[in-house]
Design brief:
The complex is a heterotrimer. By secondary structure, chain A is mainly α. Helix content of chain A is 73%, strand content 0%. In chain A, helix 2 packs antiparallel against helix 3, helix 9 packs antiparallel against helix 10 and helix 11 packs across helix 18.
C-alpha cells in the first residue's frame, strides 16, 4: 500500500520540478492574465501561454521527439515549415494591395524599413550572438510573426520562443513604440503634408499584382518561395472574386486552426532551460531596438524619397513600412491627424504597410540564402 | 452646396451632428470605423447641416457624400 | 566562437542592396503592368463607346 503511494509520488512530475519550472509557470500565468483579462492579442497569447505551462510540467513528455503530442505539432507544423506559409495564405486572403498598386513607390518604403533589420543584425553580432542567432533576432524588426517563426526555426530554433514572443509583443506595442520615433525624425511641417489622391486600381490590376509579384520574387529570391507563394495565392483567391469559399476558408477556418497549433507549439519550446538565460533578455532588448530602427529607417527613406518627388509623400507613412498590419498604418494615421486633423493618412499608410510584408519575406529569404 | 465627402472607405460608426446644426471648420462631424480604428472626420468649412446622407452602420466608400451643408 | 566579420559585412551589404534591388524591380514591373492594363482597358472602353455611334470607325 505504502509502495503504491511511493510509486505514485515518484512517478509524478512533482518531484522533478525545478525552480526554473516554477518561474516559467509564473510567466505563463502572467501571459494568461494578459490574454484573458486584458485581452492582449489573445488569439496567440493564450495558446502560447498554455504551451509554456504544459511544457514546464515535468515527465509529461509532451515535447519528447517522436512521441510527444505537442512535439508532433511542432515538428510537422513548424520544423517542416507548414504553419508559417499557411498563415501567409490566410494573410494574403485578407490583405488589400490596392494602395500599394496605386503607388508602387511605396515598395521602396517597405524596403527602407527592412534595411533597419540589417542594422539590428549588426548590433546583435556585436552583442555576442552568432550569425544565425543574430539573423533571427534581426527579423523581429520585420514585425511579422510568421516570417520570424519561419526564419528562426531554420536558423536558430533554440531562440524560437524568445523571438516569437518578442515579435508579437512589440507588434502589439507599436502604438507606444512608434510615435516618439516619428515625432523625433519629422518636422511639424512634414507631418502635415497632405498627399495626392490615390489613383483608382482596376480589378485586372489587382489580379495581375499577386501573379507578377509571386513570379518576380520566386525567380529572383527562391528561398522566399514558401512564404511568398502562399501570400500571393491567398491574395489571388481574394482578388479574383471567383473562389469566395476558398478565400473564406483561408482567412477564417484555416487561419484559426493553424493559429492554434502555432501558438501551442511556440509556447511549448519555452522550457525553463531554453528560456531562462540572459540571452533572452538581450533578445527582448534587441527586439525593441529592431522595431525602433526599422521605424526610423522607413521614415528616413520617405524623407529621402521626398527630395526627388514632385508630389511629396508624408514621411510619416515611412513608419508604416514596419509590417505590423494594420497597427503601424493606424499609428501613422493617428500621429498624422494630430498634426493636421483633416489629413486622413490611413489608406496611404497601408501602401508601405503591405509592402513591408513583402519586404520582410525578401529580407528573410536573403538572410536564409546567406546563412542557411 | 458644399458636401462632406468620405476621405476613406469604412463603416459609419457615429454621427455627431443633426440637421440644422451649425458647424465650424475642424469640427468633428462623423466617426467612421476603418480597419478596426475609430476615424473622426472633420469639417472642411463652416456652415449649417442641411442633409445627412448616411446613417449609423452604413458602409461607405472613398468619395461618398456623408453630409450636405449650406 | 570567433566572429567572422567578413561574413557579417557580406550579409549586411548583400542584404540591404538585395532588398532594395528586389523591391525596386517589383516596383518597376508593377508600374509597367499597371500602365499596360490601363492602356488596354482604355482602348477597350474607347472601342465600346464608339460602337453604337460609328461602328465603321477605325
Amino acid at each position: 500500500m505504502f509502495d503504491i503511494l511511493k510509486d505514485l509520488i515518484f512517478s509524478s512530475g512533482l518531484v522533478s520540478l525545478t525552480g526554473g519550472n516554477l518561474v516559467m509557470w509564473l510567466i505563463s500565468f502572467v501571459l494568461l492574465y494578459l490574454a484573458i483579462k486584458k485581452q492582449y492579442e489573445p488569439l496567440l497569447l493564450l495558446p502560447i501561454a498554455f504551451g509554456i505551462l504544459v511544457v514546464n510540467l515535468p515527465l509529461t513528455f509532451l515535447m519528447e521527439p517522436e512521441h510527444g503530442l505537442i512535439w508532433f505539432f511542432y515538428h510537422y507544423g513548424i520544423e517542416l515549415d507548414i504553419i508559417p506559409p499557411l498563415i501567409f495564405l490566410g494573410l494574403g486572403a485578407m490583405i488589400d494591395f490596392g494602395p500599394l498598386i496605386a503607388n508602387p513607390k511605396t515598395l521602396l518604403l517597405g524596403a527602407g524599413a527592412q534595411a533597419g533589420l540589417y542594422v539590428t543584425f549588426f548590433a546583435a553580432v556585436l552583442f555576442g550572438f552568432d550569425l544565425q542567432e543574430a539573423a533571427s533576432i534581426a527579423i523581429i524588426g520585420g514585425a511579422d510573426g510568421p516570417t520570424t517563426i519561419y526564419l528562426t526555426s531554420k536558423l536558430a530554433p533554440h531562440l524560437l520562443g524568445a523571438t516569437a514572443v518578442s515579435a508579437y509583443a512589440y507588434m502589439a506595442l507599436v502604438p507606444i513604440i512608434q510615435p516618439p520615433v516619428m515625432k523625433l525624425l519629422t518636422t511639424d511641417h512634414e507631418r502635415q503634408i497632405v498627399m495626392k489622391k490615390l489613383r483608382p486600381v482596376s480589378k485586372l490590376q489587382r489580379v495581375c499584382f499577386p501573379i507578377v509579384t509571386a513570379m518576380t520574387i520566386m525567380l529572383v529570391v527562391p528561398p522566399a518561395a514558401p512564404l511568398i507563394s502562399m501570400l500571393m495565392l491567398g491574395n489571388l483567391f481574394k482578388e479574383s472574386g471567383v473562389v469566395e469559399r476558398l478565400t473564406k476558408a483561408s482567412s477564417n477556418e484555416l487561419m484559426n486552426i493553424v493559429t492554434i497549433f502555432l501558438g501551442l507549439s511556440v509556447g511549448a519550446t519555452m522550457t525553463a532551460s531554453t528560456f531562462l538565460n540572459p540571452k533572452v533578455l538581450f533578445i527582448f532588448f534587441l527586439g525593441l531596438f529592431a522595431f525602433v530602427i526599422s521605424t526610423a529607417a522607413g521614415l528616413i527613406m520617405a524623407k529621402f524619397m521626398n527630395l526627388f518627388l514632385k508630389d511629396k509623400i508624408n514621411p510619416l507613412i515611412g513608419a508604416a513600412g514596419v509590417s505590423a498590419v494594420p497597427m503601424a498604418a493606424r499609428c501613422v494615421h493617428k500621429v498624422g491627424s494630430e498634426a493636421n486633423r483633416r489629413n486622413y493618412l490611413l489608406m496611404y499608410a497601408m501602401g508601405p504597410n503591405v509592402a513591408g510584408v513583402i519586404g520582410t519575406v525578401v529580407a528573410a529569404a536573403i538572410l536564409l540564402k546567406n546563412l542557411g | 452646396m458644399p458636401e462632406l465627402i468620405a476621405p476613406i472607405a469604412g463603416n459609419v460608426w457615429k454621427i455627431l451632428v443633426a440637421v440644422g446644426d451649425k458647424v465650424e471648420l475642424d469640427d468633428e462631424v462623423v466617426i467612421l470605423e476603418a480597419l478596426k480604428m475609430e476615424t473622426p472626420i472633420y469639417c472642411e468649412e463652416s456652415g449649417t447641416i442641411t442633409e445627412i446622407k448616411v446613417k449609423e452602420g452604413d458602409a461607405v466608400n472613398e468619395g461618398d457624400v456623408l453630409v450636405v451643408f449650406g | 566562437m570567433e566572429t567572422d566579420w567578413s561574413k557579417v559585412i557580406e550579409v549586411f551589404s548583400s542584404g540591404i542592396i538585395g532588398v532594395f534591388l528586389v523591391m525596386f524591380l517589383l516596383q518597376v514591373l508593377t508600374q509597367l503592368s499597371t500602365r499596360v492594363i490601363d492602356a488596354v482597358e482604355n482602348r477597350c472602353k474607347g472601342a465600346d463607346a464608339d460602337q453604337p455611334v460609328a461602328p465603321s470607325q477605325d
